[in-house]
Fold these 2 entries.
Entry 1:
Amino acid sequence: MNAKSSFTLTIDTDELKRARRERINRIAKWILPSTVLVLSLFIWHFYVTINEVPHYILPGPLKVAESTVTDWEILWPATLVTWRLTMWALVMAVAGGVILAVAFTQSRWVEMSFFPYAVILQVTPVIAVAPLLQIYVDSAFLAALLCAWIVAFFPILSNTTIGLKSADHNLQDLFSIYGATRWQRLRYLAAPSALPFFIGGLKIAGGLALIGAVVAEFVIGRAGTGLGLASTLLEASYRFNFGRLYAALILISLMGVVIFVIMSLISHLALRHWHESALKREQ
Amino acid sequence: MCSDRTSIENRSSLLTMEHIEKVFNGDVVALKDMNLQINLGDFVSLLGPSGCGKSTALRLIAGLLSPTSGSIQWSGGQSLDDLSIVFQEPTLMPWATVAKNVWLPFRLRGQSYKAVKSRILNVLSLVGLENFEDAYPRELSGGMKMRVSIARALVTNPRLILMDEPFAALDEITRLKLDNDLLELKEKIGCTVVFVTHSVFESVFLSDRIVVMAARPGRVIRELQIDAPYPRSGGFSTSVEYAEYNRTVSDALKDAMALAA
Ligand SMILES: Nc1ncnc2c1ncn2[C@@H]1O[C@H](COP(=O)(O)OP(=O)(O)OP(=O)(O)O)[C@@H](O)[C@H]1O
Ligand SMILES: [Mg+2]
């Protein structure tokens, strides 16, 4: 009787301890980075004011905030342009990468014929291609889109290709025994097996699409075409408008964060039931 | 016992492997002059040391490989379109629930889930997995995954089931339980089973015929009948008879290993 009650007691305290640790972890996950942010802003602010750093070298956080508000009319449309550029590049990268990956795995001839060119497309620095595109493609947006697409497309292609080939061998045999058609194999076996690989590629491509868009805007948006945030940033630097420059930079970073969050969400939704990467382990 | 024996001999042939030779990559002789007859209703075990070509023989029967020379004669003239296979690993699709995994053979033949749902649930309860139809494979233990794999093999009511060391990766207790259940299911369904195993005890407990194979090159060196009647869930595994069979089969296996060495 006595032993039993002390036994339940230890379990309870253990349980409580674990619950408390869990709660602290949850709070710390938000509190700690927020504290770091506030502290850095303070240090930044006081460094700038105490040393009287001129704003065309390093604007203080207040100056940046002020620019964000006053230049919102310029910044927000630019944000939308860069966002559209990035998203279209990503969508096209997914479409192109997946279609080509399927073609590669369905036919060795297609793979042999086109894989080297996919690699060449990937290894050629996009910054070297951009000026050419600017000459051949009339629309600056379209030229920038092509640049961003070239950068984002390869990880989707290569990951999906590997994924489509990664199906379990015994499952493949099972499909043979049950007389599966090519289409059934692709639809019910290769595609689900490729999903985690594809998602991995998508996560990389999301970040790369933004980088591609920014690079393209730097090169193509220079000629006064006034593209998105990166063009705005570049222009602000010519004018020594460092408040706007920093505001644009922060917006680009925020966009990157938003893309990352969206990709993580997609990954979670697609894989949560079955893939190791999405499973929470019981402690 | 005697009556059982005659009934075995009266069985009609399902397939005959004649002078089968299988060479991989031009120089690895996996099977050489293998002859084997499998009859309807048989429970045949292929027993032999590692690398003697047991899996290769099974894959030849399944049509996953074709022989380098020799032939497999099917009694109906054509290979079965309703055989199924169970591998050493459960080989489930991790992205699909238990029920959807069992649905696979039907799905590949264009049958909707609704149309076969009752059969799926039925076979799941047969293998002791009622109420698990919506679970994902990762939520199951090794033994339960194997049961799903068996359910998938049984659900189409195949005439022939090929099993390649299906329980080798499981613990002893789970394995004994599954051996028992397998025999029960086989009686219920009345199919033919070709069962690959490393274990003398398992082969004696399950089979009415044991085919002992030797390696390098892979071939059949002995066939032994186990004349104990089914069901064997009762005293068979503790009987003197069982111990005797085990000795005989062990000796045959030792001979096979000596040949290879
Ligand atoms: N696809 C293959 N390519 C080349 N050699 C192979 C292939 N499959 C099997 N072999 C060879 O054929 C021989 C028989 O292999 P098999 O897998 O049939 O043996 P096994 O009796 O099933 O062995 P185990 O008990 O270890 O599973 C081995 O020497 C093996 O290396
Ligand atoms: Mg094997």
Entry 2:
Amino acid sequence: MKILVPLKRVADPDNANKVKPTADKVDTSGLEWKINPFDEYALESALRLTEDGKAPKKRLGEVIVVTVGPKETETTLRSALATGADRAIRVDAEDDALDGRMVAKALQSIVEAEKPDIVLMGKQAVDGDTNQVGQILAERLDYPMATFAATIQEEDGGVLVSREVDGGVCWLRLKNPCVVTVDLRIVAPESVYSLKTDKSFKHNDGVRFAALPAIMKAKKKPLDVKTLGDVAAGTELTAKYSKFEPPPQRAAGVKVADVAELVQKLATEAKVI
Amino acid sequence: MCWVVAHANINRYKADLRETRFVLFEQFRAGELLGKPPFENWGVDEVNMVLDEVYRYATEVSGPLNGISDEGCRIVDGTVTTPPGFKEAWKKLYESGFKSLSIEPEFGGQGALATVTAMVTEMTSGSCTAFDMYPGLTIGAAELIASFGGPGQAERYCPKMHDGTWSGTMCITEPHAGSDVGDSKTTAKQNDDGTYSIKGTKIFISGGDHDLTENIVHMVLARIEGAPIGTKGLSLFIVPKRRIDEEGNSGDSNDVTTLGIEHKMGINGSATAQLSFGENDGCIGELCGTEPHRGMRQMFQMMNFARIGVGIQGLAIASAAYLSAVEYAKERKQGASVTNWKDPAAPRVPIIQHPNVRRMLLDMKARVEGIRALIVKGAWHRDHAVAIGDSDEKLRQYHEGQLELMTPLIKAYSSDQAFSICETAIQVHGGVGYTADFPVEQYCRDSKIFSIYEGTNGIQALDLVGRKLGQAGGANMQAFLGDVQKFIDETKDHADLGPAVAKLAAAHAAVASTAMTFLTWFQEGKMDRVPLAANRFLDMMSEFTVGWLLLDGAKISIEKQKSVDKKDADWAFYEGKKHAACFFASHVLPNVPSSASVIADANSSALEIPEAAFTTV
Ligand SMILES: Cc1cc2nc3c(=O)[nH]c(=O)nc-3n(C[C@H](O)[C@H](O)[C@H](O)COP(=O)(O)OP(=O)(O)OC[C@H]3O[C@@H](n4cnc5c(N)ncnc54)[C@H](O)[C@@H]3O)c2cc1C
């Protein structure tokens, strides 16, 4: 089993209030960065799918992590390697040179070269929240796709994915190679099973710690660098950012005397009814 | 019990990793040692990843246990159970391998820098002091075996102690042998096969019994029959709770009985056990190493590390208490600003805006960052001593000597300050600080033990004055005073720090003259004066050292701040370092000359007062 996990580093939401919008972009200097949480979940799922759930755990496949970004994003890749990924690829690009479509194009080239069984990714990045790269990638590759996966079970030559939908659970059976994007439930103790993992096995809840010996070995794992030109030649940006501004300050609330006043205010002031 | 609900699984631990990275990389320049032997496997990325992951462990695994751990351990039919969640946390901790950080590579560890290990331990300990005692003592016990064990002993015990299969303890204290270890009554009688039969009672044994591991390896000080009295006749024994067979599996009981566990003021999740060895004459121990009567020396080497460990425990809780207090002070609104206090309609302000609350917060910040710098300075000396190795004997001895000198300061000052900082943190909270709804009252209770175990702070003061001042013919103290003098000379005309450095210079003169006073007393045989003044001297020496290190950090910060945009978080960070140092210089450093005059005054009332005069009841 070979799994490709695209990762994005995002500004740590804890210091999001320090993000300074300027006219046409967000000034991110001096921010702390971390892996997009949904991508962390994807990595955790990929590791679970390539393990047998026994102690000591045996690796049953390969997990490749990929990011598109500047040199500093190698820290993100190294921490993914420390968590257990086997090797890493960075496509060198400045954040300004990217949009969802460009990233999907870059990933497409890498998938075509690496031929993974599954591309496992976060459903969205918590900075832009665009929720599109997985979908564009699957479309470009013409792969079957399941989004917002809550559970994944490996099957012979494919995966069975459940996704939570209004009023129930929707099951999708996919043939490999495929694209799966994950939601936060995927890191629950009983959500991911490889063919070799006993169904009675329960994973630790949440994303694993990078174990100390693995942290020390991360530097020795391979990390390849490609240029954007190598993987997305001829692609133009389709999104252009023209202006950023902070959300408007919330005005103080008011107490209403009765329902009638509430309805009146909703109609005349808030203009929502 | 609603009390349990209030505590259940909520993490309230925080650490300021920006400060951690400052101390490690900017003030104590870990970068100079990284990537070079014996730290060749370590780079900045590794250190940062370890800090981040351990912080996750601290806030996700260990922090949520702290409240629950306060409920304490239970003993039923002689079997001790730890609070709920401890077993799972133990498993996760050992899966993560974090505890192998400082262990030598030959035992599967990572041989990390002592400075890094200190900062990691701050997080593991600060997030749940009681839980972290079990692995902490286990490392200590395993390192004793690794350092002094005879043929095969390290191979037999260390791997399972390092991977969490077994735990370890230090069994020193007995009912009649507390500060004076030499009064130990536990005996060891050699058997025909070379093993020893151990008999005696040990009290206050941390982690002495629990349900986290299948076996517990006790390191027991005992006297071999016929050995001399006092500490010179003590030997160190390896005494497992359950006997270990040839294959290294735990088998039958080794006649170690748990007589009870203490009901304590704090660290309630750490079982403090009273143990009876050989009640039924069936307790077998192995001598640690091959030579008898060396137990005290062996323990002493370990104790030096353990004392620094207690200093870190103090720092850890103090820092957590400080950060809780700042968080609360930003949220709690009470009263109007002092600038319009007469106007009853003035807006209510967060209490962090009140001058007295700010003073308390800055006072805590200065002391927390001060003891952190003191501890990392000690660890820095150790790292340099290790890195220098045999290449420069004199320089290595300098670093080792400085660590020796600082060890009692680290143990005693940090632990005393921890309790006092927690007390201030409660004060900042007002009434809620006194309730279990906020973590600070538990921090305060938990922290009190640090001034007592591993040699009370009274004993630390005697160690400083009686042993460390004159160690190496006084060369260590001279070198230390020289280091600070150099800083004073280089910094006395500093635009921002000049006045603060003048206070440091006054403190320098006071410390040097008091050291001379002690020397005179020793020469004149006025020994009874020494212990009267020892604690005060330990305090003034610590305040002096901390003042120096804070100003050193401030000097670096002021330089760095020049290239930082005022709007950046880093600008405020550096500004904070400057204010903390100047506050400490203004509010605390003047204690040092004042203490010097108290000591010179040599009031001996405490000696002269007859015992009958203390009270009439
Ligand atoms: C929670 C807890 C955990 C502990 N864990 C361990 C453990 O894991 N292993 C272990 O072996 N022990 C442990 N101890 C024991 C601890 O190390 C001792 O309590 C400590 O050494 C002090 O001994 P004592 O209690 O007998 O006090 P005492 O020695 O009776 O001291 C009482 C007071 O007299 C002072 N004093 C005593 N002698 C002198 C002197 N010569 N000069 C000046 N002042 C003196 C002391 O400073 C102190 O203020 C633990 C204790 C506690 C409470």
